[in-house]
Amino acid sequence: MARVEYENVSKRFPTQDRAAIDDFTLDVADGELLVLLGPSGCGKTTALRMLAGLEHPDSGDIRIDGKSVVGLEPKDRDVALVFQSYALYPHMSAKDNIRYPLRVKHMNEAERERRVGQVAEMLSLTALLERRPARLSGGEQQRVALARAIVRQPRVFLMDEPLSNLDAKLRTHTRTELKALQRQLGTTTVFVTHDQAEAMTLADRIAVMDRGRLLQLGTPDDLYLRPVNLFVAQFIGSPPMNILAAEVRDGALLAEGTWRLPLPRGIAAKSVSVGIRPEGIELDESSTDAQVGEVLVSEPLGSETIVDVKVGGALVKVRAAPQVRPDPGTRVHLRVDPSAIRLFDTASGSAIA
Amino acid sequence: MTPRAETTVARTVAAPRGASWLETIAVHAVFALVVVFFLAPFVWLFTAAFDGRAQAYIRLPEQPTVDNFARIFTEHDFARALGNSVLVAGATMLLDVVAVSLAGYSLSRLDLRFKSWITYAVLLLQTMPLSATMVPIYGLAQALGLRNSYLGLILIHAAIELPFLIWLMKGFFDGVPRYLEEAAWLDGRSKLRALIEIVLPVARNGIGVVAGLSFLAAWSEVLMMIILIDKQDLKTVPLAFYEVLRTRGGYTEVQYGLIAAMGVLYAVPVMAIFFATRRMMVRGLIATSRGL
Q1: Of the partner residues A52, A83, A104, the one whose CB lies closest to the CB of residue B188
Q2: Are both B59 and B75 inside the same structural domain?
Q3: Same domain, B156 and B189
């Protein structure tokens, strides 16, 4: 149980010209599951490793439960890290792997056995305890790695892309289990991933990072509905938000030169980027006043169909009902929900409405 | 290589397609010659050791006898020489394993200034021929009172092989993923304990190779033993050879049977060690040649 704070943390690796972490400030509440999300090289793993004590910040402070951990050895921080590669000790059985962190604590044999048994039970590992990691499947190895982290009852769980080596089906399944487990244990968790869907399903809050900076911190809904800039808008959501170049002319918004869109109030800028989520656009075959486009391709996904429509020079993705499958070349009308429109400053990328 | 591929290669080498039978015979003859050349010394060793009248050439003993073996133990105190050799080589091996583990790990993992310089300097040391530094080593041993002492012999033997073994072990450590020791640190271990409990066991093939090579080098080294040891009761196996050559009738009347008997007992233990650990050695050496 712990609260984690990063305060103005910066870190630069000697071999790189850009800071790996740049003035990073973040507060993780007690019991929260916070996801650090961003593309590779954005600094999310470095941020995590600094909390673990495997990297050291050049400046700034990192605190757990109000106490600075900067300068503390990893062993003295009481945090557990689940590695992307699991980092199971190959020369030890699953049981010895799980028991390893307990051996250092002066805990009596019976208590150790009880804890290992309990965690093995929780993660359905009881039958596999005598096996070496090489004789376990990827999913089983992953569970042993989780068990090794859980058995210690650390103050904070750190997870560095723990699901990315699993196949798609197992990944979704484990994601659900992991979330339930975290709720049950109530341990503060910092989870690193580049997969926005994983972040959206797991997180209490998501911190989106790019080039060493924290871009936006918020609940999955915040990020999806109110992205603070173009980067977040395009990073979150699948398919991502449609971004169109637009001009403000005569009190109206003109996207791609011809597409008239309702203009939110109080916009002074001349040229902007318009962001519309795929579900913010409706296909309408009868209407006459809506924008006309040409269907490029329909992608039926079972529960929905993603229709790619060409409007002027732009390609727009529209989320439609599963039975809607317009043929390529079909002319369709696009109707935009005014509340779904987001505007961004084209130069800076920041949201303006 | 699959067994099938292996046989194909063997066939191609032994009898290239389209080759005449004459060529085939020529190829086999060359192979046979090479094999004979390499095996002859061993044949001599094992025939002469059991021959009461052994000569410098290969001959079958008229009456096989273990007399030579009895004589090296009674007349030359060979048991002591063997014991001393085991002691010196064993201690050298232990010292090397400890030193190489720490040094190799440091060069593999630590962020040292001038690390690549240090690493290459270590390798440069290995290129120094031992005979070139023989005189200063002797002087140093004399000054430190390390002549006629096992400690001196062990320290020098350990040091001779150290640069190469450090380089070798660094390669094995480079092959151990960093996240394993990081996991151990986070599990509450100090860096030293993580090295001992996690990194060394994972790199055990490397430790095996280092231990084997270190033992072999110290076991068969002669020059330092000759210049540092001149006390009877400190003599090792190479010095026992020397003693047989020197004392029994001078250099003209060499007792080949005794030399061969000593040779057998000198060679057999290391061959036994090699066979016992060959899997580990081969695996380890393959791993290094791949750069792991």
Answers
A1: A104
A2: no
A3: yes
Residues of A in contact with B190 (CB under 8 A): 73, 75
B284 and B245 inside one domain: yes
CA distance A71 to A62: 10
Same domain, B276 and B166: yes
How many domains, in total, are found in chain B?
Answer: 2
Distance between CA A173 and CA A189 in Å, rounded? 19
- ipTM score here? 0.86
**Structural domain boundaries, residue B49:** 19-65
Q: Does residue A331 contact residue A347 with C-beta atoms inside 8 Å? A: no
Using a CB-CB cut-off of 8 Å, the residues of chain A touching B180 are: 87, 89-90
- Reported as a single tens digit per residue, the pLDDT across B118-164 is 888 888 888 888 888 889 989 999 999 998 988 999 999 999 889 99
Instruction: Judge: A85–B179 Cβ closer than 8 Å, yes or no.
Output: yes
Size of interface A-B (CB pairs under 8 A): 56
Residue B7 lies in a domain: no
Is the CB of A148 less than 8 angstroms away from the CB of B187? yes
Tell me what the pLDDT averaged over chain A comes to: 91
Answer with the one of B36, B65, B94 that is the final residue of a domain: B65
Question: Using CA atoms, how far apart are residues A195 and A348, in angstroms rounded to an integer?
Answer: 25
C-alpha span between B240 and A1 (Å, rounded):
71
Q: What is the CATH number of the domain that holds B259?
A: 1.10.3720.10
Radius of gyration of chain B (CA): 24
Name which of B186, B202, B204 is nearest A80 (Cβ-Cβ). B186
Reported as a pLDDT band with limits 50, 70 and 90, residue A308 is very high
Contacts with A, B 167-186, CB within 8 Å? 177, 179-180, 182-186
